[in-house]
C-alpha cells in the first residue's frame, strides 16, 4: 500500500478530503479524472481499517465531478 501511495504522489495526483460512509476519506484526481477513493475507519483514536477503491468502472458510477476543480 505504501508503494501505491508513493506512485500516486509521483503521478502528480491531487486529493480532496471527503466524508466516505460517514468517516474520513479522500478522493484522488489525475488530470481532472478520479483515480481512487480512500476511506479510513478510526476507533478509540486508532486507525483500524483503510479501504481504497480504484476500479475505473466503479469510480465512474460515483458523482465525483464537482470535486475535480
Write the layout of secondary structure elements.
Layout: H1 2-11, E1 14-20, E2 23-30, E3 33-43, E4 46-53, H2 56-60
Antiparallel strand pairs: 1-2, 2-3, 3-4
Instruction: Work out the helicity level.
Output: 10-25%
* Spatial strand arrangement across the major sheet: 1-2-3-4
How much is the average pLDDT? Answer: 81
- Count of alpha and pi helical runs: 2
Cα-atom Rg, whole angstroms?
Answer: 12 Å
Q: Report the end-to-end length measured between terminal Cα atoms.
A: 26 Å
Count of DSSP strands: 4
Backbone shape: globular
Which descriptors apply to this entry?
four-stranded antiparallel sheet; 4 strands; alpha+beta
Question: Please, could you describe this protein's structure?
Answer:
It is a single chain. The mean pLDDT is 81. The radius of gyration is 12 Å and the shape is globular. A hairpin with a 2-residue loop joins β1 and β2. It is α+β, with helices and mostly antiparallel strands and 69 residues long. It contains two helices and four strands. It has a four-stranded antiparallel sheet.
Amino acid at each position: 500500500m505504501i508503494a501505491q501511495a508513493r506512485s500516486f504522489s509521483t503521478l502528480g495526483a491531487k486529493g480532496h478530503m471527503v466524508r466516505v460512509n460517514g468517516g474520513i476519506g479522500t478522493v484522488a484526481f489525475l488530470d481532472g479524472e478520479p483515480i481512487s477513493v480512500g476511506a479510513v475507519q478510526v476507533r478509540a483514536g486508532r486507525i483500524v481499517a483503510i479501504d481504497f477503491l480504484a476500479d475505473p468502472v466503479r469510480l465512474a458510477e460515483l458523482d465525483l465531478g464537482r470535486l475535480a476543480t
